Structures are given as structure tokens and as C-alpha cells.
Amino acid sequence: MTLPTRMPRPRASRALPALAAALGLLALSTGCGTERAAPADARPASPEGRTLHATRIAHVTDAHQATGMTLLEGPVLNRAGDLYVVDVTAPPGAPKLLSVDVETGAHKGVYTDRTSAFTSAQISPRDGRVYLTDYGSGRIVSLAQDGSDPRVFFSGEVDGSVMNPDDIVFDDDGNLYISDLQGMRTGEAEGRVVRIDRDGRGSSVLADGLAHPNGVMFDPGLRGLWISELATDTVSYLLLDADRTTVKSRHEAIHVDGGLAQTDSIGVDAEGNLYQALHGRPAMAVFSEYGARLGTVEIPAKEAKGLESATNVAIAPGGRKAYMTVSGPSGGYVYAFTPLAKGIRLSNGG
Question: pLDDT for 133-184, tens place per residue?
Fold first, then answer.
């Protein structure tokens, strides 16, 4: 989920309109060239690598009259194989957490409330509940998988500031790691990565001074975190200590040549390959863990009109099926594609 400008922290009743207004600033326009194609044997290798073709499986939402838009995020599969997604800009009363049958495309609302603006969903390996990041209030909310029993897992300040939480990932013990879009002032790097203990009682800032951190994801060995920084089109790597409570080192690992597009959420597969979602283009860039551009996930050109961004991905653990959330003025959709390697627990959303 991408937010390019700083917003005053809204009261709960104003959180959604403020969020929708900020998201509206992200509309980007692109054009198509008309150059004559060179003979096949004369074309250079594509700098974007191989094409991974994505197929539409579900039309989940349309633009809401109240907010003027829709934005699907946070895909995560439950054990039954249903895909949860959140609609960031859903107005009060409209479904904010939905489930999608990936075989039929049928979908239904699972949870709603009047104030939240959920930007991500993830399932805890500790208790099996669905955890949601609420950008507007800074809370982390958890639910039973059927949408019942909502609880506030965490709220309040972290190191003196309330979060603007975006994406979330769990380690194997159930501790949470969150990208915090703190600040969001143009030209300033005020974002953070926050760690919250699995019982919700302790929190700390692992890293700060980040340029609008959006995606957060462990590598398969849980040695460190990949962080996509929206404002710089950069993927950074944070090497953690054995307890995953301290950053041992930090460096800019991958620079994404996105043009008008910017780095959104990030995923990983069993081989450590990175799937970098693109805001401003309905596609994902795929890299090796050493930064080589391996490929690009593309939707069919005839379906691209009215779709502006690919926001996130979930790869089925143990399988070769990936599900990508894509949104724009024409609505919110789920697309499926075959990833380069099998999924693992960590690949299941973020």
C-alpha cells in the first residue's frame, strides 16, 4: 500500500476519507509506444527477464462511491485454500476483509467495522488468527478466521510515536515485524521497521530513517528482512541477530528501475527469489536474492486498462501457485501465476 505525502493523524471518524484522499494522489498515467518490432534474432535480451503470465481468477471489488476507489491488499491463504484480502478504502459497512475461492472466483465479506483502514492481513503461526494492520489508528487487530472475536492485539506508541502500520510478517515464534510508514513527508526518510512481541506486550524499533518502507519480508532462513522503500525504489536488507531483536547490518540491496512505477509490497519463495510489487504498473518484478532481474509478472495487455497497481502476492506453501492482488479505477482483482519456485510459510502473503 502506497502513500506519498504526509497526512495529519486523523481521528477514527476521518481516517478513511483522509486515506482515500492521499491514495488519490497516486494516480499515474502511462503511454504505449508504437515502434516497429525488430526481427526476433536481432532483439536484445529483455532487461526485465522472462515473462510470468498472470491469469485473472476473480473480480472482487469495484470503486466505492464513498471513497472513489478500491484497493485490494494483504493476500494470504488459509489451510482450506481460501484467499483472504483486505480492501484498504472500503467505507464503513462495506466488507474490509474478504475471502476468495481461488477455484471459482466466488468471494464474500468476512469482517467490517466503521473506522479502520486495513492495509495488510497475515495469519499467525502461533495462534492461527488473522492479524490486520490498521493504518489510520496504528492498531494491530486480530480475528478468528471466520471473522468473529475481533481483538485489539496492539495499540499505542512505539518509541514515542504511534505507527502508521502497512505490511506485516511473522517469525516462526509468532513475533511480528511491521513496516511503519511514519511521516511520509516528501523528501524525508522517517519510516521505521517495528518489532512487536508475540504477546503484544513489548515493542521496539529495529530500524528507522527509511524512505517510506512498504513491503517487509524475511528471507527463507529468517536471517534478515527485505524492506522495499517506496520513495527510493530500493529494496534494502536488514541482517538480524540470532534473537531477531537487533539489526546487525543494513544495506541497499536492489535498485528497481521502475520508471513511473514505485516499489510496493514484497514476497519471497522457497529459493529466496523476491517478488516486488509495483505501484503505478499492474506487474511484479522478480529478482534473485543477489539482485539479478529474473522476470516480470504481467497481466494480459487487453485487461490492463483501468488497472494501476499490483500490490502484493501470496504463494501457496508447498505449491507452485501464486495469487497477486491488482487494483485500479476498474476495480480490485486477483490474478494467478506460476512462481519460479515453491512457496513456504513466509511466502504466504505479507
Answer: 999 899 999 999 999 999 999 999 999 999 999 999 999 999 999 999 986 6
Asked if the model's pLDDT at residue 43 lies above 70, the reply is no
Cell digits for 174?
509468532
> In the sheet where 203-210 sits, what is the strand order?
165-170, 176-180, 191-196, 203-210
